[in-house]
Amino acid sequence: MKTISITSSILSSIFEQIQIQLGGRLEIKSKEYRLEINNDIAKGFISGISVEPAISYMEYDIVFKEDVSLLYTENKSNSIHFGYCSKGQLIQSFNEYGEKNVLGQFQTGIFSNSVKESTFLAFRKNEEVKLSMVTVDVLSVSDKELKAQLQNTFLINQENNEFSYIGSFNLKISEKIEHLNAISQKGLVRNLLINSIVYLILALEIEQHKYDLVNAESYCNSLSQADMEAIKDISEFIRNYPEIQYSLKYLSKKAGLSPIKLQEGFKIMHNRTVTDFIRNVRVEVAENLIRTSELNISEIVYTVGLTSRSYFSKIFKEKYNCSPKHYQNHQNKLAVTA
């Protein structure tokens, strides 16, 4: 197994060390890093963003051609790694031969090593992995409330004890990572959008940990990763075709899941029932059409698969705190003054 040693929490140093050991072409723009690799060791990319001195974000979309471990060997134990696996899986341990924790697709993982042990993240040969990692140097965090919460939750007695947690399934984080990768703006607007989404990903990781602790005794997940992939696919299908008159029977058959598993999956991934998810998608698509198209409200109602304008106005107001017409007029005023 090839071991990539990382001895710094500073993003620029991390990418220098990875490039020396893996090769590839490193591109640096402002606070963003991207290492493209296509050689005998790996194919794919590793990207990174420095959000603030205490917080960084890294993303791996890569296939290693041999078994590879990332070895974090910092001489301090103040860093917490908040991971999320969008595809494939990786194995975490605190030394090469220690207990193995498997971080699977759509799962969150939180890791912090003691001063006595290093953190290993192992990638399997020829398996595509998409991993996102928010790393926080807790002692350098400027927000006092966040700093206290992280210390009290994850850094208790770190002199002798490591912290390792594998969470339950979460699709919200996957969606936020997609939003992050879709940012096309440049300059200050880009930086602000990136920072806000990374902070949101961090918040969702912490929220997932809290949720799992509260529901540890009662929570029993009967869904496999294949089931969750089916839920993700059917969710995307609904987003792409909101106008279809869906039934639970139709969606269950298309997903290859029982109605009970379908509902359970939507509750886990979206914290909504199937019906509520469909309704929310339709409202969001309608809002986008109001902003970007010349369609009138009645046409938009029909386009998103609804038949009652009054019902549409009701659910739109619940989400956006104003009527569709008022929202449309406001958009028109903005266009005139732009």
From TrEMBL:
InterPro entries in UniProt: Homeodomain-like_sf, HTH_AraC, PchR_regulatory_protein
Species name: Mariniflexile litorale
Protein name: AraC family transcriptional regulator
Single GO molecular function: DNA-binding transcription factor activity
Short name of any one Pfam family annotated for the protein: HTH_18
Domain HTH araC/xylS-type: from-to ranges: 232-330
Keywords for the protein's UniProt record, in alphabetical order: Transcription, Transcription regulation
Source superkingdom: Bacteria
